Amino acid sequence: MSAVRNIRMLARYNKWANNMLLDAIAALPLDEVIKNRAAAFGGMSFALAHVAIVDQIWQAHLLGKDHGFKSRTTESPDSLAALTEKLNESGDWYIQYADSMTEPLLNEKLSFLFVDGGAGEMTRGDILIHVFNHKTFHRGHIGDMFYQSGFRPPSIDLPVYLRDAFNESELG
Length: 172
Prior knowledge:
This protein is mainly α and 172 residues long. Helices cover 61% and strands 6% of the residues.
């Protein structure tokens, strides 16, 4: 099992898990989606906005571009429809990017500035693993918010994806 194969699989898993979660969120009453909570980032829409922002920041780092963000959060998240569109677009981008990776590219070190201005250096592979892990972390926060609302989140663990949706032939 190669690192390239795993990165490509994780990119697809993340898009699948995001879509499963976004579909479940769309079925909730709107007041539960926008409700301010004692939770990561204050609620579902704020957590989704954070994930969308962070996706854009790391995409810019991978491309060697300035992302223009001064914060990893927002005071006013986009609508659920807009956040869904942003997360779908970034999910597609990360799949295409992962599909362009080779072992040497995954091991290439990139220098960048964190949002707070501190210098950073990571390999492309480490950045991609971080991006995918970061979303998993926050999907867990949102899952907890489902339970706080009296609803059950979708089952989006990696083994469920591997059983229900994974297609090895897509990995090239």
